[in-house]
Amino acid sequence: MNMERLATDFAGIKMATPVMGASGTFGFGIEYSDFLDLKKVGAIISKGITPVPRAGNNGVRIAETPSGMLNCIGLENPGIDRFLSDVLPRVRQQAPDTAFIANFSAGTVEDYGMMAAKLDVDGVDGVEVNISCPNVKEGGIVFGTDPKAAAAVTESVKKNTSKPVIVKLSPNVTDITVMAKAVEDAGADAIALINTLTGMVVDIRTWKPLLGNITGGLSGPAVKPIAVRMVWQVANAVKVPILGLGGIATAEDAIEFLLAGASAVAVGAENFIHPDAVVKVAEGVDSYLESRGLKHVSELVGQLRI
Ligand SMILES: Cc1cc2nc3c(=O)[nH]c(=O)nc-3n(C[C@H](O)[C@H](O)[C@H](O)COP(=O)(O)O)c2cc1C
Known about the structure:
Elements lengths: L2 H4 L1 E3 L2 E3 L3 E3 L21 E3 L16 E4 L2 E4 L8 H15 L4 E6 L4 H10 L7 E5 L10 H4 L2 H13 L5 E4 L7 H10 L4 E4 L3 E4 L1 E2 L4 E2 L5 E5 L4 H12 L6 E4 L5 H10 L3 E4 L2 H4 L3 H15 L15
């Protein structure tokens, strides 16, 4: 892998490659060290961190679906204080050279600001603001479907941090560009999309919903065409860089996102099938660049021919 061709500065976050591990599918990164070389991971994006520890939802939390999966984990995580005292030091010790982006959410605009302030520490290279979790009652998606609320959260986070702020959008809206423009105007340094699409599976033996939370978030290859379409729409609507994700399993998938306008990408559900996918995708992107005689991955970004 030619690291010069892949080295990426995403919204001020320096990365070895433009391919990251997506929030909630990559732990805190260090759990994957047996499967891949963390130095070749563009960035670790953490599981969503919340103001207090969360046990997550009861009952069944994962359902396989055609070409994808539904999940309703419910933001299980150790909470911000234990993240800072216990998890982050281990990440920095075991993956000192990998960019680390802390994904977080909260129940109120004020708490989003409080979380941003607490995460404004050495060892965190950027924050990803989750306003799009469909699986929790408070916070999350409430902010992700209302442009005014999304802007208020973004402003609150920006006011409280010196780190680059990536706002992660929900695809569960009619016009994604309205949300993208709202958070850009409120100061977001970058936009990530997409989070999961709300879905549901019915168990016909019991006549009950299969998932404990009734509904869950759909991810995996099934959502990729929707994600690519949304990246393209948002790339035409905003100036800030875009982190594209949703169904990326191969280098070819990642290249689609880059051509559609994403400056970097993340691998999510595919990590559960191939735990080395983040690096395999980066290697494949590099081979593609070489085969096309391109010197740097940025030469692909937004080059879609219409
Ligand atoms: C099990 C699971 C847990 C997730 N947890 C989070 C989370 O904590 N915060 C977040 O912003 N996104 C979370 N996501 C969404 C992913 O980061 C990603 O946006 C989505 O799954 C689409 O990408 P994919 O199709 O490659 O999985 C989660 C996804 C899955 C499958």
